[in-house]
Amino acid sequence: MSAPRRVLVPAAAAGAAIASLAALALLAGASPLDALRALASGSAGSRAALGETLLRSTGLVLTAAGACLALRTGVLNIGLEGQFLAGAAAAAAVGPALAGIPLLARAAMLLAAAAAGALWVLPAAVLAAKRNVPEVLSTILLNLIAATAVSGLVRGALRDPVGDYPQSRALPDAVRLAPLFGGGRATAAVLLAFLAAALLAVLLSATPLGLKLRAVGLAPAASRAIGLPEARLKLLAFAGSGALAGLAGGLEVLAVTGRLYDPFSAGTGYAGLAAALLGQAQPVPSALAGLFFAALGAGSSAMQRDTGVPAAVASLVPGILVLAVLAARARAGRSAP
Amino acid sequence: MDGRRARFRSARDARDAGLALVPQHDLLVGAASVADNLALLDRNAPLFESARARRARVTRLTDAFGLELGRPDDRVDALPVGTRQRIEIAGALAGEPGVLILDEPTAVLSPDETAALFAALRKRAESGAAVVLITHRLAEVFAGADRLTLLARGKTVKACRIDETTAAEIGGLLIASAEQTALSEETPKIFLEGEEGEEPPELPLGAPASPDLNHPSKKSTARSAAGSAVSAVSPFTFEVTRRGTNLEVVGFRPAGSRAKQISLSLSPGELLVLLAIDGNGADTIAAAVAGLQPFAGSVRVAGAALPRSGDPLAFRAAGGAFVPADRREEGLVLDLDIAENLALPAPPGRLFLDRTAMRARAAEGMAAFAVRASSPAIRAAALSGGNQQKLVLARELAGVPRLVVAIHPTRGLDLAASAAVRARLAGACGAGASALVVTADPDEAFLYGGGVRVVTRGALSDLLPEGTPPSTLGRLMAGLAA
User: pLDDT at position B186, please?
Assistant: First the structure.
């Protein structure tokens, strides 16, 4: 894809997003300008708004990074949602047990979350390598299992003995991350997420391992014939992708919710995949797409409050965007030599 | 077309209007059967057609054009490239197009099939159709064409009726223009056009029009673009062990096949050409040795036994190098640049890629193998077929291999590029490697300078005496007595 196109496609997509938002606001009987203004101020107009956007972006940026790693290696990991839940459950299980030593608890939660995410994708990776089971199917099915497992855990093994709700024990405040700046809920977790995306970009473009991963993603048959350990590299991409999604789940518990409950995720893994598609599997653009989705989510409640346009309208936008980008790419693919 | 301006929105559109193209690399639907692919290609196929009718088409086309198309229910992606190319050709002919364009259609055909194809093309031309044949084989031009256009770098070098020129003249122009393209990435090609002609096709089977051009001697090899390649000094120094065998195959057959077991061995410096029509098992032997197909029996590369399940890594670890049949699918990562392709499978650098070392390696490889591109940052996809093949060789021969396995290494290349590729393989053998080369071109078999064996239905012939005429080779390939 040529450089102007790399800029043009996201720019056109952003234009399409704003246009479709305006049209939807009009349909809801509000002034499009007012709706967009409310959306903007609700996502970045104040410290609280900005904090909300950054808080929401953490999981999206990390799952988008996981999706990028998988897509670039030619692996279709649709199971980020399940890996996110596995990471959250592992963090919620480990955290309260180590509550006495906050630093250790945090480290253990993040490690456990990443490991759980990587383990959750493993069945799909092994089935794909050994039995040619399409990972699109197996990872989606593992999402359903993960959601059911979370539902079972908060009613069983991880249930908080105090209280009536099916939820896990709360993390003490000493373990939970403190806000990054006054007046907003965002924590250092968001920095970690962007750091991970930046590191992934470097890994893919500037390391020997990254070159091998990209080769496998671009030309699997050639990679096999050249003598690249294709199966091992794909397994690595699966596991790394799962670990990033698991980390997202762990940070959600550590930084946002403090505990596990049911239903826990509002589709973070799917939205992260959409962000990666919008960012064309490039880690940094995908992280920015994740941030944009987070801003839409944060701003939409302000839009509903101020102009009466339903918040759900904003959640249509990511879908419209991804379709627009995929259509643009298909067109570009057809006209390319 | 037919005096009217035609505008096509898709290949289907063009085909429906009576313009059929047989591409150099087939564009079939891999997951579909032979019968379904032919139904898609045939513009006269009805909208709804029973499976039985689709199968019947395969048999009908096989008989009509003398092309072996595989079984109707075979999945196309399981078939060798030669069969796939024949399916494209049969599919194009089936629609009785008014304009038929073929891009290097004979690269993987046997002499008999080439003869059958030319007979079919002549028949099309005589029924009033225009046939355009893009080829680099002079014998084909002078066997079947009415007019020829010689193109180099997109410009017409010569255009005339076939009876106004000679093979020697065109061959001379061809080599001269190949030398002039030193800085370009284009490959010179001959365009051969057939129209309502009178003379019956003289087939490229027996005596080619100009033996000295179709069978360039080693002297002419050194004179063409290969000259620079031959004199290039390898950047690597190494010691040659001339003891032992570099390849030992015992009791081999493809996994699950009932073919006769074969055995062969290659000592250092030895080059063996397996000459076969695609689908007869030569490419399977080569692919299995390279670790890309499971097999029964034993394969040892430089003494190391390879796992029967097929393991390209074990093949490489033992000192194997592989030049696959399909350079675009298997040889290169087209979306990576030249330097990145040359850096695989073990890119330099510990934590970070050593871009300086990659550029240096690319510059060396490009110079040593005469890869023509303005910079190592050019994507492999942007190179011509000849330059892509030289890039594959630059990567594969850089690591001082003990054994080079090459399938159709000169397919679709012009005279100069083919000679360069052969010189490269011979050079590797001179340095102590062994080479196993698969080709379907009897004109080319002895040009490698090694032994030649014919493979028919998985069975291996004895070494053939040098100078066996291509016509005899062709009959052996077809399974007939010499």
Answer: 40
3-state SS of A119-138 is HHHHHHHHHHHHHCCCHHHH
Q: Are A229 and A54 in contact (CB under 8 A)?
A: no
Q: Which domains does chain A have, with CATH numbers?
A: 3-335 (1.10.3470)
Mean pLDDT of B16-43: 89
Nearest by CB to A229, from B313, B351, B395: name it.
B313
Torsion of CA B129, B133, B139, B144, to 10 degrees: 0
The token pair that represents B18 in the structure block:
């009576």
Window 228-267 of A: residues touching B by CB (8 A cutoff) are: 228-229
DSSP A254: I
Helices (H) and strands (E) in chain A, counts: 13, 0
For residue B299, give both structure tokens: 């394969």
Edge-to-edge strand list for the sheet holding B434-439: B320-323, B403-407, B434-439, B271-275, B451-456, B459-460
CB A227 within 8 A of CB B313: yes
> Nearest to residue B135, comparing CAs of B180, B194, B65?
B194
β-sheet with B155-161: strand ranges across: B19-22, B99-103, B130-135, B189-194, B147-152, B155-161
> What average pLDDT does the segment B420-430 reach?
88
User: Residue B478 and residue B442: Cα distance in Å, rounded?
Assistant: 11
| Start-to-end Cα distance in chain B | 46
pLDDT for position B229 = 33
Residue A211 structure tokens? 């070159």
Work out the minimum CA distance from A131 to partner chain B, whole angstroms.
Answer: 15
Phi, psi of A230 (to 5 degrees): -55, -45
Provide the pLDDT for residue A260. Answer: 93
How close, in Å, is residue A211 to chain B by CA atoms? 8
